[in-house]
Amino acid sequence: MTLAQSPSESGQAPLGHHKARALKAGSRRPAKDLCSECGLCDTYYVHYVKEACAFINQQVADLEAQAHGRSRDLDSEDDLYFGVHQEMMAARKTEPIEGAQWTGIVSSIAIAMLTSGKVEGVVCVQNTPEDRFQPQPVIATTPEEILAARVNKPTLSPNLSVLEQVERSGMKRLLVIGVGCQIQALRAVQDKLGLEKLYVLGTPCVDNVTRAGLQKFLDTTSRSPSTVVYYEFMQDFRVHFKHEDGSTETVPFFGLKTDQLKDVFAPSCMTCFDYVNSLADLVVGYMGAPFGWQWIVVRNETGQELLDMVRDQIETQPVMSQGERRPAVQNSIPAYDKGMTIPMWAAKLLGLAIERIGPKGLEYARFSIDSHFTRNYLYVKRNYPEKLDQHVPAYAKAIVDQYELPD
Protein backbone atom coordinates (compact mmCIF):
# COMPACT_ATOMS: atom_id res chain seq x y z
CA MET A 1 0.00 0.00 0.00
CA THR A 2 1.29 3.50 -0.82
CA LEU A 3 1.18 6.43 1.55
CA ALA A 4 -1.38 8.10 -0.71
CA GLN A 5 -3.82 5.21 -0.37
CA SER A 6 -6.60 5.72 2.13
CA PRO A 7 -7.36 3.31 5.01
CA SER A 8 -10.81 2.69 3.56
CA GLU A 9 -9.19 1.31 0.41
CA SER A 10 -7.02 -1.19 2.23
CA GLY A 11 -8.79 -1.75 5.55
CA GLN A 12 -5.57 -0.84 7.37
CA ALA A 13 -4.08 2.24 8.94
CA PRO A 14 -1.74 4.07 6.56
CA LEU A 15 1.84 2.88 6.40
CA GLY A 16 3.87 4.82 8.91
CA HIS A 17 1.06 5.32 11.43
CA HIS A 18 2.30 2.56 13.66
CA LYS A 19 5.85 3.88 13.38
CA ALA A 20 5.18 7.59 13.72
CA ARG A 21 4.56 9.00 17.18
CA ALA A 22 3.01 12.25 18.29
CA LEU A 23 5.46 14.88 19.44
CA LYS A 24 5.68 15.17 23.21
CA ALA A 25 4.12 18.18 24.90
CA GLY A 26 6.54 21.08 24.75
CA SER A 27 8.52 19.61 21.86
CA ARG A 28 9.78 21.96 19.18
CA ARG A 29 7.27 21.76 16.31
CA PRO A 30 8.46 21.48 12.70
CA ALA A 31 6.96 24.92 11.89
CA LYS A 32 8.97 26.32 14.85
CA ASP A 33 7.86 29.85 15.78
CA LEU A 34 5.13 29.75 13.13
CA CYS A 35 3.33 26.76 14.67
CA SER A 36 -0.37 27.52 15.05
CA GLU A 37 -0.84 24.61 17.46
CA CYS A 38 -3.45 23.04 15.17
CA GLY A 39 -2.95 19.69 16.91
CA LEU A 40 -1.68 17.62 13.98
CA CYS A 41 1.72 17.17 15.63
CA ASP A 42 -0.02 15.82 18.74
CA THR A 43 -1.04 12.74 16.77
CA TYR A 44 0.75 10.12 14.74
CA TYR A 45 -0.32 12.13 11.67
CA VAL A 46 2.76 14.22 12.50
CA HIS A 47 4.25 11.84 9.91
CA TYR A 48 2.66 14.09 7.25
CA VAL A 49 3.30 17.50 8.82
CA LYS A 50 5.88 18.79 6.34
CA GLU A 51 3.36 18.26 3.56
CA ALA A 52 0.25 19.26 5.51
CA CYS A 53 1.25 22.26 7.65
CA ALA A 54 0.01 25.58 6.26
CA PHE A 55 3.16 27.32 7.53
CA ILE A 56 5.62 24.87 6.00
CA ASN A 57 3.90 24.06 2.72
CA GLN A 58 1.35 26.63 1.55
CA GLN A 59 -0.82 24.83 -1.01
CA VAL A 60 -4.22 26.50 -0.92
CA ALA A 61 -4.76 26.48 -4.69
CA ASP A 62 -4.13 22.75 -5.01
CA LEU A 63 -6.30 21.91 -2.02
CA GLU A 64 -9.10 24.15 -3.31
CA ALA A 65 -9.15 22.10 -6.50
CA GLN A 66 -9.20 18.90 -4.42
CA ALA A 67 -12.01 20.05 -2.13
CA HIS A 68 -14.15 22.12 -4.50
CA GLY A 69 -13.35 20.90 -7.99
CA ARG A 70 -11.51 24.09 -8.95
CA SER A 71 -9.23 26.74 -7.48
CA ARG A 72 -10.31 30.37 -7.30
CA ASP A 73 -10.58 32.60 -10.36
CA LEU A 74 -8.22 35.53 -9.75
CA ASP A 75 -10.06 37.62 -12.36
CA SER A 76 -13.26 37.49 -10.30
CA GLU A 77 -13.20 39.93 -7.37
CA ASP A 78 -15.54 37.77 -5.29
CA ASP A 79 -13.40 34.68 -5.92
CA LEU A 80 -10.20 36.65 -5.32
CA TYR A 81 -11.37 37.80 -1.90
CA PHE A 82 -13.76 35.13 -0.68
CA GLY A 83 -12.55 31.97 -2.38
CA VAL A 84 -14.38 29.32 -4.40
CA HIS A 85 -18.11 29.51 -3.74
CA GLN A 86 -21.50 28.68 -5.17
CA GLU A 87 -23.51 31.13 -3.09
CA MET A 88 -23.18 33.83 -0.45
CA MET A 89 -25.92 35.23 1.77
CA ALA A 90 -26.67 36.88 5.09
CA ALA A 91 -28.63 34.81 7.61
CA ARG A 92 -29.75 34.54 11.20
CA LYS A 93 -31.73 32.01 13.18
CA THR A 94 -35.39 32.83 13.71
CA GLU A 95 -35.11 31.31 17.21
CA PRO A 96 -31.57 31.95 18.49
CA ILE A 97 -29.82 29.47 20.74
CA GLU A 98 -29.48 30.85 24.25
CA GLY A 99 -25.87 31.58 25.11
CA ALA A 100 -24.63 31.33 21.51
CA GLN A 101 -22.15 33.96 20.40
CA TRP A 102 -24.51 35.05 17.63
CA THR A 103 -27.74 33.23 16.84
CA GLY A 104 -26.32 29.69 16.87
CA ILE A 105 -26.22 28.72 13.18
CA VAL A 106 -23.00 26.67 13.53
CA SER A 107 -24.28 24.79 16.59
CA SER A 108 -27.64 24.16 14.90
CA ILE A 109 -26.02 22.69 11.79
CA ALA A 110 -23.84 20.42 13.91
CA ILE A 111 -26.78 19.20 15.98
CA ALA A 112 -28.91 18.56 12.88
CA MET A 113 -26.11 16.59 11.22
CA LEU A 114 -25.67 14.46 14.32
CA THR A 115 -29.32 13.81 15.16
CA SER A 116 -30.14 13.01 11.53
CA GLY A 117 -27.45 10.32 11.49
CA LYS A 118 -25.54 11.98 8.65
CA VAL A 119 -22.48 12.01 10.94
CA GLU A 120 -21.46 9.93 13.93
CA GLY A 121 -19.39 12.63 15.61
CA VAL A 122 -18.57 16.33 15.50
CA VAL A 123 -15.08 17.69 16.16
CA CYS A 124 -15.61 20.95 18.04
CA VAL A 125 -14.03 22.92 20.87
CA GLN A 126 -15.32 23.14 24.41
CA ASN A 127 -13.39 24.86 27.18
CA THR A 128 -11.65 23.42 30.22
CA PRO A 129 -13.56 23.45 33.52
CA GLU A 130 -11.00 25.84 34.98
CA ASP A 131 -10.89 28.47 32.20
CA ARG A 132 -13.59 29.56 29.77
CA PHE A 133 -10.96 30.69 27.26
CA GLN A 134 -8.78 27.56 27.35
CA PRO A 135 -9.79 25.37 24.39
CA GLN A 136 -10.53 21.68 24.83
CA PRO A 137 -11.15 19.85 21.52
CA VAL A 138 -13.67 17.01 21.69
CA ILE A 139 -15.52 14.60 19.43
CA ALA A 140 -19.10 15.42 20.35
CA THR A 141 -21.62 12.60 20.04
CA THR A 142 -24.63 14.28 21.68
CA PRO A 143 -26.41 17.62 21.16
CA GLU A 144 -25.48 18.56 24.72
CA GLU A 145 -21.78 18.15 23.96
CA ILE A 146 -22.16 20.33 20.87
CA LEU A 147 -23.96 23.04 22.83
CA ALA A 148 -21.17 22.95 25.42
CA ALA A 149 -18.85 24.09 22.63
CA ARG A 150 -20.83 27.19 21.65
CA VAL A 151 -19.01 30.55 21.78
CA ASN A 152 -15.68 31.10 20.02
CA LYS A 153 -12.40 30.51 21.84
CA PRO A 154 -10.04 33.31 20.71
CA THR A 155 -6.90 31.32 21.48
CA LEU A 156 -4.79 28.88 19.50
CA SER A 157 -6.57 25.54 19.64
CA PRO A 158 -5.27 22.01 18.85
CA ASN A 159 -8.49 20.82 17.17
CA LEU A 160 -6.73 18.10 15.17
CA SER A 161 -5.33 16.48 18.30
CA VAL A 162 -8.46 14.28 18.37
CA LEU A 163 -7.81 12.68 14.96
CA GLU A 164 -6.30 9.55 16.50
CA GLN A 165 -9.48 9.14 18.55
CA VAL A 166 -11.52 9.31 15.35
CA GLU A 167 -9.64 6.40 13.81
CA ARG A 168 -9.76 4.33 17.01
CA SER A 169 -13.49 4.96 17.38
CA GLY A 170 -14.27 3.44 14.01
CA MET A 171 -16.34 6.46 12.97
CA LYS A 172 -16.84 6.69 9.23
CA ARG A 173 -18.89 9.90 8.91
CA LEU A 174 -17.50 13.00 10.59
CA LEU A 175 -18.15 16.73 10.79
CA VAL A 176 -15.17 18.92 11.67
CA ILE A 177 -15.57 22.54 12.75
CA GLY A 178 -12.40 24.58 12.50
CA VAL A 179 -10.41 27.55 11.24
CA GLY A 180 -8.19 27.93 8.20
CA CYS A 181 -4.85 26.56 9.40
CA GLN A 182 -6.54 23.52 10.96
CA ILE A 183 -8.59 22.86 7.85
CA GLN A 184 -5.59 23.07 5.48
CA ALA A 185 -3.82 20.40 7.52
CA LEU A 186 -7.00 18.33 7.70
CA ARG A 187 -7.54 18.48 3.93
CA ALA A 188 -3.96 17.39 3.35
CA VAL A 189 -4.43 14.21 5.42
CA GLN A 190 -8.15 13.52 5.02
CA ASP A 191 -7.61 10.54 2.73
CA LYS A 192 -5.54 8.94 5.49
CA LEU A 193 -8.39 8.98 8.05
CA GLY A 194 -10.41 6.02 6.78
CA LEU A 195 -13.61 8.07 6.52
CA GLU A 196 -16.48 7.42 4.15
CA LYS A 197 -17.62 11.04 4.37
CA LEU A 198 -16.05 14.19 5.81
CA TYR A 199 -17.97 17.42 6.26
CA VAL A 200 -16.05 20.62 7.02
CA LEU A 201 -17.80 23.59 8.61
CA GLY A 202 -15.49 26.58 8.91
CA THR A 203 -15.41 29.98 10.53
CA PRO A 204 -13.33 32.95 9.36
CA CYS A 205 -10.33 33.50 11.62
CA VAL A 206 -7.80 36.24 12.19
CA ASP A 207 -5.47 37.37 14.97
CA ASN A 208 -5.61 34.54 17.46
CA VAL A 209 -3.39 34.66 20.51
CA THR A 210 -1.85 32.43 23.12
CA ARG A 211 -3.69 32.33 26.44
CA ALA A 212 -1.15 34.80 27.86
CA GLY A 213 -1.62 37.05 24.86
CA LEU A 214 -5.38 36.96 25.32
CA GLN A 215 -5.00 38.05 28.92
CA LYS A 216 -2.87 41.00 27.88
CA PHE A 217 -5.50 42.01 25.33
CA LEU A 218 -8.30 41.79 27.89
CA ASP A 219 -6.30 43.63 30.55
CA THR A 220 -5.44 46.52 28.24
CA THR A 221 -8.81 46.82 26.52
CA SER A 222 -11.79 45.80 28.69
CA ARG A 223 -13.17 47.63 31.73
CA SER A 224 -13.59 44.25 33.50
CA PRO A 225 -11.28 41.57 32.06
CA SER A 226 -12.30 38.90 34.59
CA THR A 227 -15.99 38.96 33.59
CA VAL A 228 -15.63 38.82 29.79
CA VAL A 229 -17.48 35.81 28.39
CA TYR A 230 -16.61 36.43 24.75
CA TYR A 231 -15.75 39.24 22.37
CA GLU A 232 -15.68 40.01 18.66
CA PHE A 233 -14.33 42.68 16.34
CA MET A 234 -17.55 43.79 14.65
CA GLN A 235 -18.73 45.55 11.49
CA ASP A 236 -19.41 48.79 13.36
CA PHE A 237 -15.64 49.18 13.88
CA ARG A 238 -15.91 48.37 17.57
CA VAL A 239 -14.82 45.45 19.72
CA HIS A 240 -17.89 44.03 21.48
CA PHE A 241 -17.28 42.43 24.86
CA LYS A 242 -20.04 40.33 26.42
CA HIS A 243 -19.87 40.16 30.23
CA GLU A 244 -21.17 37.66 32.76
CA ASP A 245 -24.04 39.94 33.79
CA GLY A 246 -25.30 40.08 30.20
CA SER A 247 -24.04 43.60 29.54
CA THR A 248 -22.15 44.54 26.39
CA GLU A 249 -19.08 46.77 26.40
CA THR A 250 -17.85 48.34 23.15
CA VAL A 251 -14.40 49.77 22.43
CA PRO A 252 -13.56 51.53 19.12
CA PHE A 253 -10.98 49.75 16.97
CA PHE A 254 -9.09 53.01 16.80
CA GLY A 255 -8.94 53.29 20.58
CA LEU A 256 -7.02 50.06 21.08
CA LYS A 257 -3.64 50.42 22.74
CA THR A 258 -1.83 49.39 19.61
CA ASP A 259 1.55 50.33 21.03
CA GLN A 260 1.09 47.66 23.70
CA LEU A 261 -0.77 45.11 21.57
CA LYS A 262 1.22 45.24 18.34
CA ASP A 263 3.12 42.04 19.14
CA VAL A 264 0.41 40.16 21.06
CA PHE A 265 -0.84 38.09 18.12
CA ALA A 266 0.64 34.68 17.38
CA PRO A 267 3.35 34.68 14.65
CA SER A 268 1.28 32.07 12.79
CA CYS A 269 -1.63 34.51 12.60
CA MET A 270 0.70 37.28 11.44
CA THR A 271 1.76 35.05 8.53
CA CYS A 272 -1.70 33.70 7.64
CA PHE A 273 -3.50 34.52 4.38
CA ASP A 274 -6.59 32.36 4.82
CA TYR A 275 -8.90 34.70 6.71
CA VAL A 276 -12.01 33.32 4.93
CA ASN A 277 -11.30 29.60 5.50
CA SER A 278 -10.90 28.76 1.82
CA LEU A 279 -11.01 24.98 2.19
CA ALA A 280 -14.15 24.50 4.28
CA ASP A 281 -17.31 23.21 2.59
CA LEU A 282 -19.41 25.87 4.32
CA VAL A 283 -18.25 29.02 6.12
CA VAL A 284 -20.29 30.88 8.73
CA GLY A 285 -18.99 34.18 10.07
CA TYR A 286 -20.09 37.78 10.35
CA MET A 287 -17.69 39.95 8.37
CA GLY A 288 -19.58 40.12 5.06
CA ALA A 289 -23.05 40.64 6.56
CA PRO A 290 -24.95 43.60 8.05
CA PHE A 291 -24.62 44.10 11.79
CA GLY A 292 -26.65 41.43 13.62
CA TRP A 293 -26.55 38.96 10.74
CA GLN A 294 -24.17 36.14 9.82
CA TRP A 295 -22.34 35.82 6.51
CA ILE A 296 -22.65 32.38 4.91
CA VAL A 297 -20.44 31.11 2.09
CA VAL A 298 -21.41 27.86 0.37
CA ARG A 299 -18.30 26.54 -1.37
CA ASN A 300 -19.48 23.22 -2.81
CA GLU A 301 -22.29 20.66 -2.83
CA THR A 302 -21.24 19.29 0.55
CA GLY A 303 -21.55 22.80 1.95
CA GLN A 304 -25.00 23.08 0.40
CA GLU A 305 -25.95 19.85 2.15
CA LEU A 306 -24.81 21.31 5.48
CA LEU A 307 -26.79 24.51 4.99
CA ASP A 308 -29.91 22.66 3.89
CA MET A 309 -30.05 21.04 7.33
CA VAL A 310 -31.12 24.35 8.88
CA ARG A 311 -32.90 26.10 5.99
CA ASP A 312 -36.19 26.00 7.90
CA GLN A 313 -34.53 27.53 11.00
CA ILE A 314 -33.06 30.66 9.41
CA GLU A 315 -34.10 33.82 7.61
CA THR A 316 -31.85 35.07 4.84
CA GLN A 317 -31.19 38.14 2.73
CA PRO A 318 -28.86 38.81 -0.20
CA VAL A 319 -25.36 40.05 0.52
CA MET A 320 -24.79 43.78 -0.01
CA SER A 321 -21.78 46.02 -0.50
CA GLN A 322 -21.46 49.72 0.21
CA GLY A 323 -18.71 52.32 0.62
CA GLU A 324 -15.05 52.53 -0.37
CA ARG A 325 -12.41 50.68 1.62
CA ARG A 326 -9.16 51.62 -0.11
CA PRO A 327 -8.44 55.03 1.47
CA ALA A 328 -9.09 53.65 4.96
CA VAL A 329 -6.84 50.65 4.30
CA GLN A 330 -4.02 52.78 2.90
CA ASN A 331 -4.19 55.11 5.91
CA SER A 332 -4.20 52.19 8.34
CA ILE A 333 -0.97 50.67 7.00
CA PRO A 334 1.48 53.22 8.50
CA ALA A 335 -0.72 53.66 11.60
CA TYR A 336 -0.40 49.98 12.47
CA ASP A 337 3.20 49.77 11.31
CA LYS A 338 4.19 52.49 13.77
CA GLY A 339 1.98 51.24 16.60
CA MET A 340 0.06 54.51 16.80
CA THR A 341 -2.51 54.98 19.59
CA ILE A 342 -4.92 57.91 19.70
CA PRO A 343 -6.94 59.30 22.65
CA MET A 344 -10.25 57.51 23.31
CA TRP A 345 -12.36 60.62 22.63
CA ALA A 346 -10.78 60.95 19.19
CA ALA A 347 -11.16 57.21 18.58
CA LYS A 348 -14.89 57.39 19.34
CA LEU A 349 -15.40 60.31 16.95
CA LEU A 350 -13.42 58.59 14.22
CA GLY A 351 -15.36 55.38 14.77
CA LEU A 352 -18.71 57.17 14.47
CA ALA A 353 -17.64 58.85 11.24
CA ILE A 354 -16.41 55.64 9.64
CA GLU A 355 -19.48 53.72 10.80
CA ARG A 356 -21.69 56.22 8.95
CA ILE A 357 -19.74 56.60 5.72
CA GLY A 358 -17.35 53.65 5.75
CA PRO A 359 -17.48 50.25 4.05
CA LYS A 360 -20.37 47.88 4.79
CA GLY A 361 -21.28 44.31 3.89
CA LEU A 362 -18.87 42.72 1.45
CA GLU A 363 -16.90 45.96 1.22
CA TYR A 364 -16.31 45.79 4.98
CA ALA A 365 -15.11 42.21 4.51
CA ARG A 366 -12.70 43.39 1.81
CA PHE A 367 -11.52 46.19 4.11
CA SER A 368 -10.73 43.68 6.83
CA ILE A 369 -8.98 41.30 4.41
CA ASP A 370 -6.94 44.11 2.84
CA SER A 371 -5.90 45.48 6.25
CA HIS A 372 -4.71 42.12 7.49
CA PHE A 373 -3.09 40.94 4.26
CA THR A 374 -1.02 44.12 3.89
CA ARG A 375 0.04 43.89 7.52
CA ASN A 376 0.88 40.18 7.25
CA TYR A 377 2.74 40.60 3.97
CA LEU A 378 5.01 43.16 5.62
CA TYR A 379 5.49 40.84 8.60
CA VAL A 380 6.57 37.92 6.40
CA LYS A 381 8.78 40.15 4.25
CA ARG A 382 10.61 41.53 7.28
CA ASN A 383 10.79 38.45 9.49
CA TYR A 384 10.79 35.51 7.05
CA PRO A 385 11.99 36.95 3.72
CA GLU A 386 13.11 33.52 2.53
CA LYS A 387 9.48 32.32 2.74
CA LEU A 388 7.86 35.29 1.01
CA ASP A 389 7.56 33.97 -2.56
CA GLN A 390 6.35 30.48 -1.66
CA HIS A 391 4.25 31.32 1.36
CA VAL A 392 2.09 34.20 0.05
CA PRO A 393 -0.66 32.79 -2.21
CA ALA A 394 -1.25 34.40 -5.61
CA TYR A 395 -4.62 35.78 -4.53
CA ALA A 396 -3.08 37.46 -1.47
CA LYS A 397 -0.30 38.96 -3.56
CA ALA A 398 -2.88 40.40 -5.97
CA ILE A 399 -4.74 42.00 -3.06
CA VAL A 400 -1.58 43.43 -1.49
CA ASP A 401 -0.42 44.84 -4.83
CA GLN A 402 -3.29 47.36 -4.71
CA TYR A 403 -1.49 49.30 -1.96
CA GLU A 404 1.73 51.21 -1.35
CA LEU A 405 3.68 49.54 1.42
CA PRO A 406 6.60 50.84 3.49
CA ASP A 407 9.92 49.06 3.25
Characteristic key phrases:
407 residues; three-stranded antiparallel β-sheet; eight-stranded mixed β-sheet; single chain; 13 strands; alpha+beta
Low-confidence stretches: 1-19
Distance between the termini: 50 Å
- Which strand-content bin applies to the residues? 15-25%
Describe the largest sheet.
8 strands, mixed
Total E-strand runs: 13
* Alpha-carbon Rg, integer: 20 Å
Q: Shape, please?
A: globular
Number of helices: 17
Read across the widest sheet, the strand sequence of neighbours is 3-2-4-5-9-10-1-11
Helix content: 25-40%
Order of helices and strands: HHHHEHEEHHEHEHEEEHHEEHEEHHEHHH
* Structural class by SSE content: alpha+beta
Mean pLDDT: 90
Helices and strands in order, then pairings?
Elements: H1 7-10, H2 49-52, H3 60-68, H4 77-82, E1 87-93, H5 105-115, E2 121-128, E3 131-140, H6 143-147, H7 163-169, E4 173-178, H8 180-189, E5 197-202, H9 211-221, E6 228-233, E7 238-243, E8 248-252, H10 258-261, H11 267-270, E9 282-285, E10 294-298, H12 301-308, E11 314-317, E12 321-322, H13 326-337, H14 344-357, E13 360-361, H15 362-383, H16 388-391, H17 394-400
Helix pairs in contact: 13-15, 15-17
Summarize the structure.
By secondary structure, the chain is of the alpha+beta class.
Model description:
- This protein is an alpha+beta fold.
- The protein has a domain at 15-208 and 269-315.
- The chain has 17 helices and 13 strands.
- The strands form 3 sheets. Strands 3-2-4-5-9-10-1-11 form an 8-stranded mixed sheet.
- Helix 13 (326-337) runs parallel beside helix 15 and helix 15 (362-383) crosses helix 17 (394-400).
